[in-house]
């Protein structure tokens, strides 16, 4: 896992033997165990790391009016019961432009107003609720609907 993993040496002296992972990946999920020996004592600690991700398809920049798919996944082992999507704090329900199904959200014709935080909330059969937020950026045009640009002959126009 190097170079994504570190232990702060100065923190060890104060009894903090935390493991830092940056960035966390889906495959990092699982059980971690630490064992610290000092004097005649041995301390053990186990921590289970769960990982949740939001992926964008197609990856990269999203262009206005080009369909996109947001997928929300978690390493949690129980059965997924419900997925809720929120945009700017508002619960999203399926409509003509939005379709939510089993951890995914499809936006058929994204607009600039779809930019911003999308929050995915997963509820599992063991009543565990896991959530994550993805900041969606839409590339589009801000301005009049039918812009007219005038330029002098022989000059450049942007």
UniProtKB/TrEMBL annotation:
Gene Ontology molecular function: MHC class II protein binding; protein tyrosine kinase binding
What does the UniProt entry say about where the protein is found? Cell membrane; Secreted
Residue runs in coiled coils = none
An annotated GO cellular component: extracellular region
| Pfam families in UniProt | Ig_2
Membrane association type = Single-pass type I membrane protein
Name the principal localization, coarsely classed. membrane
One of its GO biological process terms is:
T cell activation
Q: Which PROSITE patterns does the entry link to?
A: IG_LIKE
Known SUPFAM superfamilies for this protein? Immunoglobulin
InterPro entries to which the protein is assigned, alphabetical: Ig-like_dom, Ig-like_dom_sf, Ig-like_fold
Keywords from the UniProt entry: Adaptive immunity, Cell membrane, Disulfide bond, Glycoprotein, Immunity, Immunoglobulin domain, Membrane, Repeat, Secreted, Signal, Transmembrane, Transmembrane helix
Q: Which residues form the Ig-like domain?
A: 50-131
Q: What does this protein do?
A: May function as a ligand for MHC class II (MHC-II) on antigen-presenting cells (APC), promoting APC activation/maturation and driving Th1 immune response. Lymphocyte activation gene 3 protein: Inhibitory receptor on antigen activated T-cells. Delivers inhibitory signals upon binding to ligands, such as FGL1. FGL1 constitutes a major ligand of LAG3 and is responsible for LAG3 T-cell inhibitory function. Following TCR engagement, LAG3 associates with CD3-TCR in the immunological synapse and directly inhibits T-cell activation. May inhibit antigen-specific T-cell activation in synergy with PDCD1/PD-1, possibly by acting as a coreceptor for PDCD1/PD-1.
PANTHER family xrefs = MICROFIBRIL-ASSOCIATED GLYCOPROTEIN 3, T-CELL SURFACE GLYCOPROTEIN CD4
Its quaternary organisation is: Interacts with MHC class II (MHC-II); selectively recognizes stable complexes of peptide and MHC-II. Interacts with FGL1 (via the Fibrinogen C-terminal domain).
| Family according to the record | Belongs to the LAG3 family.
- The name this protein carries in UniProt is Lymphocyte activation gene 3 protein
Name the lineage: Eukaryota, Metazoa, Chordata, Craniata, Vertebrata
The encoding gene: Lag3
């Amino acid at each position: 896992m190097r170079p994504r993993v570190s232990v702060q040496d100065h923190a060890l002296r104060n009894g903090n033997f935390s493991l830092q992972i940056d960035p966390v990946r889906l495959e990092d999920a699982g059980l971690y165990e630490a064992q610290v020996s000092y004097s005649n004592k041995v301390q053990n600690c186990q921590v289970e790391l769960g990982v949740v991700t939001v992926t964008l398809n197609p990856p990269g920049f999203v262009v206005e009016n080009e369909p996109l798919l947001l997928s929300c996944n978690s390493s949690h082992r129980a059965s997924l019961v419900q997925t809720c999507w929120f945009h700017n704090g508002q619960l999203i329900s399926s409509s003509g432009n939005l379709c939510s199904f089993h951890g995914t959200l499809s936006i058929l014709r994204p607009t600039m107003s779809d930019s911003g935080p999308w929050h995915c909330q997963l509820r599992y059969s063991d009543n565990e609720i896991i959530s994550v937020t993805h900041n969606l950026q839409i590339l589009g045009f801000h301005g009049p609907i039918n812009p007219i640009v005038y330029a002098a002959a022989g000059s450049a126009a942007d």
